[in-house]
Write a structure and sequence with these properties.
With about 350 residues, the chain is of the alpha/beta class. The protein has two domains: about 10-135 and about 310-330, 2-Layer Sandwich (Nucleotidyltransferase, domain 5), CATH 3.30.420; about 140-305, ATPase, nucleotide binding domain (Nucleotidyltransferase, domain 5, 2-Layer Sandwich), CATH 3.30.420.40. Helix content is about 40%, strand content about 15%. The protein is built from nine helices and ten strands. The protein has helices at about 50-70, 90-105, 115-120, 170-180, 190-195, 220-235, 240-270, 285-300, 315-325; strands at about 10-15, 20-25, 30-35, 80-85, 110-115, 140-145, 150-155, 160-165, 275-280, 300-305. The chain has a five-stranded mixed β-sheet with strand order 3-2-1-4-5, with helices on both faces. The protein has a five-stranded mixed β-sheet with strand order 8-7-6-9-10, with helices on both faces. Helix 4 (about 170-180) packs across helix 5, helix 5 (about 190-195) packs across helix 7 and helix 6 runs antiparallel to helix 7. The protein is globular and about 70 Å long. Bound molecules: 5'-O-[(R)-(carboxyoxy)(hydroxy)phosphoryl]adenosine (KG4). 5'-O-[(R)-(carboxyoxy)(hydroxy)phosphoryl]adenosine binds near residues 146 and 173. 5'-O-[(R)-(carboxyoxy)(hydroxy)phosphoryl]adenosine (KG4) binds near residues 148, 173, 177, 194 and 280.
Amino acid sequence: MTSINPDTIILGIESSCDDTSAAVLKGDVLLSNVIAGQKVHEAYGGVVPELASRAHLQNIVPVVSEALRQAGVKPEDLGAIAFTRGPGLLGSLLVGTTFAKGLALGLGIPLVDVNHLQAHVLAHYIQTPAERVDTPDFPFICLLVSGGNSQIILVRSAFDMEIIGKTIDDAAGEAFDKCAKVMGLGYPGGPIVNKLALQGNPEAFKFAKPQIPGFDYSFSGLKTSFLYTLRDELAKDPDFIVKNKEDLCASLQKTIIDILMNKLEKATKAYGITQVALAGGVSANSGLRDAFIDYGKRTGHKVFIPPFAYTTDNAAMVAMAGTFAFAEGHRCSIDAAPYSRVQI
Ligand code: KG4
């Protein structure tokens, strides 16, 4: 395991999508984590890349200043700057990348680039000043579920991660968001579906589950099946959605969770892994968190569920991944360009 210097202070910067975030980590202990979301996208039902870049430009200086202030750290105290280099929206990534480079150059300190997906996985190693939390032992399996990804990752070390299963079409978060959109529930749909599902019957409706070999996922069939159910039922009763939205949400959520957990369980069996972690925006889902806990109780496997603050995009995880990389001697050159797509 990489040995981390407990005195090294690293500033993390995240700007891959629609959250501008900065965090300060001392060793593996989080001193601050500031996130500025972007409400501007709500009116469009999805993230508008150009608007995201402009909002990052407005947010980056106040967010970094606030992260340093909350941590009680001066720029001169920083040992390095870690930033998300990709994957993500190129215009958004450029803002964080350029800011990180400028600050690192100005301060004369090293720059460390971070893969956003690896950072989600490594969020499980973040400690707080109040208490030390249990962390996964390598190797473990991480289920990474977000708006853009649904992956089962075999994590052999902080830098050796292999995607052993992934979605062949939509991500789990997209399934939540798109189904919520056709019900007219607003954006992002995942949290709204989650809230309504708490009052609904998960067995009320049955939707198609994919039959995909191996550990890969597919959510496009479920989306179509959901759409056809609405179409058929609305033809009989125009108020069908209004009358049944809680049951629709509960049934949709249960189907997505069943699909996710089924493949995850197959993968842990096949690889003989007994430690399993959850990560990404969809890991905020209360049903999925409960399913993880049940899975742990049923199998005796150790499960790791992230605190809510690390489920969506945040710079704490970027600082953590950067801290691992810095300790390994990894440095990023000043001419490094961001990338929109990349595997782990
Ligand atoms: O990781 P993330 O913040 O960023 C992207 O991948 O863009 O994930 C965002 C996704 C969205 O699809 C959102 O609907 C989903 O996470 N999400 C949820 C919940 N909270 C966020 N899905 C289901 N239940 C939730 N409570």
